[in-house]
Amino acid sequence: MEAGKISLLLLLCVHVLSIGVFGVPETCPADIDSKCGDKDDWEGEFFPDIPKIKYEGPSSKNPLSFKWYNAEEVILGKKMKDWFRFSVAFWHTFRGTGGDPFGAPTKMWPWEDGTNSLAMAKRRNWWCFHDRDIAPDGKTLEEANANLDEVVALAKELQGTKIHPLWGTAQLFLHPRYMHGAATSSEVGVYAYAAAQVKKAMEVTHYLGGENYVFWGGREGYQTLLNTDMGRELDHLARFLEAAVAYKKKIGFNGTLLIEPKPQEPTKHQYDWDAATTASFLRKYGLVGEFKINIECNHATLSGHSCHHELETARINGLLGNVDANTGDPQIGWDTDQFLTDIGEATLVMLSVVRNGGIAPGGFNFDAKLRRESTDVEDLFIAHISGMDTLARGLRNVAKLIEDGSLDELVRKRYSSFDSEIGAQIKAGKADFEMLEKKAKEWGEPKVPSAKQELAEMIFQSVL
Fold first, then answer.
1. 242/367 same-domain check
2. What Gene3D superfamilies does the database record attribute to this sequence (predicted)?
């Protein structure tokens, strides 16, 4: 297929795990004309000047090439594509308008006509998706489901056997019915409607071969406690998630259920504020074995943490399942969803992922959007290439850190006093206060060594 004749539905937002580079299968369904109208209109000249994106190495000056991401290259025992399992956010990539709270849209992509019709939905791409991103809502639940079914049937045929969603989710925050929340709404009718919408979204994700399903709270929280029964809302949320687990098993969906912490925007206080809060919630309601956590780096910033902190918190709790690869602007206090281009941050991200042994069946979803001022179609490709290369450099840097061993040795030495008989007793829970008091008297005033923070930072910077 020529570069300019690439089906929009399968071009950029593919699960890159399947093919390693940006591109699409060489064939489209034979009956595409009957499904979508004229084939030329469907494929369109959306990307006439974009070639297949290939790895050309660090010396390349070609902006439409990978400099660091080499899908088949083995790093730390795995191919790069298997460490990352890259996927792209449909809502930001193909439906992003450039609008913000203070300005009108700046983009009108060639696959958009300014409507949210079913006909337009059939000309777009994904793959990670909200249900309402890929198909328009309806006046009734039945109509909304019918719209979704029509688009999903086409998507199933177009994606073939190699391409599939990394995850799907239900949009439970935009419609006015969800102004008080969905699973935490004060209205039982809204709770029931949200359950029906999630039921359908889970069925669709399963049908399309999705590997995960995400719960993004959106408005699961409160503006003031004066009119809120927080305990009751949390109980309702837990019952909602328990019902989702039961339905997942009923339909035979083997994908991972993920919860994405989000501290604010739009609700003043979200119940899934950060990874620690989410882990505590899951543990309280006995859901730890049923869910993992999807960490978004920009949300980490909004919660007052670094992305590395959130990843490590999820990891040490055995809950790290997926990463929304983006970043925020430290000088802007809202969710800017920028592409991750900071090599240091990417290295810290990959340090957690490597320590976790990878995140499959999760992956890296580019929940990121072009800047308002970037309006060329080419910019979509450049942004994703840059994000993929940045994370690939991070992985390569982690490999250097592990090969060098200095950082691991520094950490080992710092805690070496616990590599003793008394340390083993503490770890085993056999060191009571009487025993520890006896040791404290025997040892006298402890000698506290340096933490060597500057040395740790020097070692880390040396691989960047």
1. yes
2. Divalent-metal-dependent TIM barrel enzymes (3.20.20.150)
